[in-house]
Amino acid sequence: MQLSLTPVWTSRVQDHAMALDLPTDRIVRLRISAGDEFAPDYSYAIANDSWLGTDVEKEEGEDVTVLKTESLAIEVGTEPFRLRIADQDGHVRFETTDDGIEFTKEGICFIRSIGNAERIYGMGEQGETLDKIGHSFRFWNSDHSHHVPNRRQYCEIPFSIHMTPDGVPPTALFLDNPGEVNYDLGSNDPSVMRMTARTGDFVLWILFEDSIKELLSSWARMTGHMERPPVWSLGFQQCRWSYFPDKRVREIAEEFRTRRIPCDVIYLDIDYMRGYRVFTWHSKRFPDPDKLLRDLRDQGFRVVTIVDPGVKIDEKYEVFQELSKAGEAFIKREKDGEYLVDRVWPGKCHFPDFTNPEVRLLWGEYQNRELLERGVAGVWNDMNEPALFDHQDFAHPASQHDFGLNRRHEEIHQIYGLTMAQASYEGFLKARPQERPLIITRSGWAGIQRYSMMWTGDNHSTWQSMAFCLQLNLSMAMAGVPFVGCDIGGFGGDCEAELFARWMEWGVFQPFCRVHSCRGTRDQEPWSFGGSVERIARQMIELRMRLLPYLYACFVHAAETGQPINRPLVCEYPNDAAVHRLGDQFLVGPDILVAPVLFPGHDRRLVYLPPGVWYHFWSDQRLEGGRWEIFEAPLSQPPVFVRAGAVIPMHPVRQHTGEPEPRETYLDVYPGTQLRGGLVEDDGLTQAWRNGIESRITFTGWQDDLELRLYLSEPDGEYRSARDRWTVRLHTEHRSVASVTCNGVKVPFERDGSVVTWSMDEERAAIEVSVAFQR
Ligand code: GLC
């Protein structure tokens, strides 16, 4: 979008224009022009141009100007250039070196001092560690089949969170430049971070908040929130390259239902198309897609189809003809304006220019006509870095529409996937305005969460790849993309039983829960590895289905606040230095901690439990946190823990989310001094929640030596679920319960091992529960 910020300070350095804006009291934007003057002020990342602004006091000194707002004191000088920003508590939150800019052959290089023991998080699919300090990265989305940490990935986002362990609040940086960007995070000189934009203006956003969580909220406000997703996208999803013909798809669906393994979604990979032409169907393999989709839907399956950007050059192919007629439809060769050609699955292709709104419109229409109208439920955008077969990048300098600015592709390379997802999303909403769109994409950039969820691309069926993916998920979440996941079991290569089981054990806790595998590899369905692995897969998928109400509340929270669904522990425990670099265990929402087993043959693992009390999920053992401990982790029981005080809403297992809404909601209460939890209910599919057709209930309470109190708030909102009763399961191995009263009336309870259970009628009013413990 075009931004309308007014600079509070301007200057020139070595023939380059410079400007500072203060979009809010806690956000600073610095621009440095690549040429003499600034390029027009457009951003692909920013989705919100209604800035609050702020009052500024300006003192112009001889070599520095000081700008003061309520929260910040900004000193900026130009000879040589330096920038120093302190907060109202006097903490220096951002500082360049004494000569903070270099204009080099590689582009504009900005040099910032690294703080003492600084940790750096985020950046999307970058690197193999949660903390990126000491690494260097190139940002240039690409398709590298090796999918290893030192190769470039599909979605690299120059948004980073910087934190020092001295209690100074964290700061975030975003280099708003969609061309090639290079970061050196202290890899050469540990005291400096160098950020280089090879092309285009250097536009740096600096965000100041009090915590990582607030930075992520601020980032979501700037770049857009993820949509509340359709509830079926939280279910288990099965994919393979490819299930075809239609008979095979039906067999897979049937297997899920007869084996009683819950599944919501089946994917169709590229072989459903006619010669890989997008928006077509293969007439022999899928002679009647409408009927297939209808029948699957009757069995409770949604179908998501892949769509690649490359449009086959074929005069007899309607999509090609129409787009060719549209003019400016494809990416052009800069020198002669001819459409660029490269090979992808269909052979020689042109590549739609999704920065052109007319192309997005047409794309959306085809998506609707050939996919959505036939009953396809969601769209899977792939190969959109874009991936090419003949070259790593376009063979010739290319140009794109780009808000009518006609810029070089290389200056906006990073947003190809973002704009393709935008086309898909806009098309979906136009076709089905009452529904919640479900778009999944491989490539993206800053802001992708507002259009699409993401999966981390072509991983491998190896232990190393599995561990790498866990880290990618967390770094994506820390770059503002909460709805993310990797292909469970690994894409490339043959998976084996133990790896599949271990991957399922934590994969079901990912926001996006899909098994996928490459053509030519062995079968990779939950039942492909024998009975015992099938039992583990079923048990884990069932656990996900049971946890749906908790997960859904996490998704809604993510959509409203930008908070990750899978979060590194540092999000919740920033003051605990033990978690600052911890990337091999994660939280699901605020209350569930998962420590996956990441090595073959390991039947136990070392886990760090943050300060506080935790419950072992499988045994209900009560554990003191703030320490490391080795836990047994036999297959089928990965280390999972619940925070004391959590109230986790759960459902009975369903085979898919379209089965009738359960009449019973469980509340798993893990006693702690303060209780907390919540439930958000709506129809799971439409936009009606925007008009208040939803229902929110919060769970609060406390516990002392004598009593536990639990309050269920009166439902807020118009939605009425099918629930007619609550069943509370109090996990308390060491306390004997004397009585349970609900709204003053005694209710019978039962104890089974460590769990005390009772039921209460749904009231549509507040419920107050008192549990008296035996003295
Ligand atoms: C790409 C995708 C993969 C897909 C394959 C065939 O490699 O990343 O998921 O199966 O293309 O479409």
Terminus-to-terminus distance = 65 Å
Please give the radius of gyration in angstroms.
27 Å
Rounded mean pLDDT is 96
Sheet with the most strands: spatial strand order: 4-5-6-7-8-9-15-14-11
| Overall number of strands | 50
Strand fraction band? 25-35%
Q: Report the major sheet.
A: 9 strands, antiparallel
Low-confidence stretches: none
Tally the helices: 12
Please state the oligomeric state of the protein chains shown: single chain
Could you say which small molecules are bound to this protein? alpha-D-glucopyranose
Description of the molecule:
It is a single chain. The protein has 775 residues and is α+β, with helices and mostly antiparallel strands. Helix content is 18%, strand content 31%. It is built from 12 helices and 50 strands. The strands form 9 sheets. Strands 4-5-6-7-8-9-15-14-11 form a 9-stranded antiparallel beta sheet, with no helix packed on it. The relative contact order is 0.09. The structure holds alpha-D-glucopyranose. The site of alpha-D-glucopyranose (GLC) has 9 residues, from loops.
